[in-house]
Amino acid sequence: MLIIKFGGSVITNxxxxxxxxxxxxxxxxxxxxxxxxxxxxxxxxxxxxxxxxKRYRLNEGFKRKNQLEGFALTHATVQRLNTLVLASLHNHGxxxxxxxxxxxxxxxxxxxPQTKWxxxxxxLDMGFMPVSFGDxxxxxxxxFSICSGDLLVQMLAAQFKxxxxxxxxxxxxxxxxxxxxxxxxxxxxxxxxxxxxxLTTHANPHADVTKGMxxxxxxxxxxxxxxxxxxLLNGNVHNRLYDTLKGKKTKxxxxxxxxx
Length: 260
Fold this sequence. Notes:
The protein has one domain: 3-Layer(aba) Sandwich (Carbamate kinase). The longest helix is centred in the first third of the chain and has 26 residues, at 66-91. It starts with a strand and ends in a 5-residue tail after the last strand. The chain has helices at 8-11, 22-35, 50-55, 66-91, 101-104, 118-125, 149-160, 193-198, 212-225, 240-245; strands at residues 2-6, 39-43, 96-98, 129-133, 135-139, 143-147, 164-169, 174-175, 187-188, 190-191, 230-234, 253-255. β5 and β6 (143-147) form a beta hairpin. The strands form three sheets. It has an eight-stranded mixed sheet with strand order 3-4-2-1-7-11-12-10, sandwiched between helices. The chain contains ten helices and twelve strands. It is of the alpha/beta class. α2 packs across α4 (66-91) and α7 (149-160) runs parallel beside α9.
């Protein structure tokens, strides 16, 4: 079983509110369908969630009454994105079923306490593809906060111990520095936990409320500490996902989990 995360930067234009990349999503859905793998799929909120969440400062918790409107609008908007993702998966013959985070879990000061993942397992065991996504959720300490797709991946990986975790990005993988801003950044084909700790990243103009790559690196380190390998690949390159799923030689970064 694999856990795959479609980044919001791949399936949406993060600089333009509610801009869905239908052609990219359809191609990724086709590659998933052809690969015939057992998958839990998570997708980011992209421009359907981060712009509104930042505007209403939802990640700071409940402090002002107008944030209630912001919470409701943000959830409705990311649910709309999820519906578009599901439609694409269904059109490619995949039995995708949505599991909205806000309905099945709550956070505690941004962290996810012990949660039973029975619903994901039940759907998976029946042959469905569970699909979840970055969402706003209740928070026992803050009133509400944001449950990122990356946080979901981390917790699901700890629970299900997948064959590997795959992050589908808008870059070929990890670099020695931010390739969007540093022309001297070099591509890293394989990375250890110690290497991860040395990597530095810098916010780009559209960095989101979940801290972009900086937050992702911390999540990947926690996944690696569980002994699980993580692959980071470019979802904008045709067949990059399919070739990775089928074990064919292609370009990606592997972060090797610590053997326990």
